[in-house]
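Q: Here's a chain of 251 amino acids. Please give me its 3D structure as tokens.
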Amino acid sequence: IADALFERILNDPHYHLIFQCSPYHTNSALHPVIRQFERSAAFALEDSAAVKLEKLESLLGATGNLSDTTRNLFADLLSIPLDDRYPPLDLAPAQRKAATITALVDQLSRLAEQKPVLFVLEDAHWIDPTTQEFVTRVVDSIAPMCVLALITARPEFLSPWTGRDHVTSLALSRLSKTQCAELISGIAASQLLHRDLVEDIVTKTGGVPLFLEELTKTIMESGTTDQSAVPSTLQDSLMARLDRLGPAKEI
């Protein structure tokens, strides 16, 4: 659904910001924000601190957001040494965090004044506490802005943003058997799969679209219609596809 939205607005002028949460960074403050800034500024592995600072200033300059305080906060957020280029901020950790979140929301507001912003937070069930504070500020601030925030999460995530007039929650259920069969047919294209094989795929995937898609692709690539060859888990499915890569598997 998120991908369908991206495709629908692809040719419309807008900013597309993606904040991807990770199970490996649930305790890393603002990790999704840092990664998004690095992409927006087009940081490269070989960039020196000076080059990164120039790219950051170019990014901020595009929205007229070049105060010494803003540059200092964002450089600190992105671990870019300033080398006395700007006067240091004498802030306690809690004050620095609050100032950084305020600066982030201000940058979003400036972007939205230029053109609409699609703000996407992926996998909120892995969000770190500081990013959650930032997103809460965003949700509380965007009602008058030209910003659409799209937040995805697994069912076990208890959203702290519900109950606001401008927030809508959409619970997605698993695909029905009919929908599963249609998806399998679409992936298999001209190749007809035996009804029993389709039933086995539907049963093992439990109506989860990603698993359904990957499992069907695995069977199509294997060239077998043997039901015993149908992987039982998504990991088994992906490993079976890797096994068929030959020497490339090691890479």
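Q: Can you summarize the key feature?
A: The chain has ten helices and three strands.
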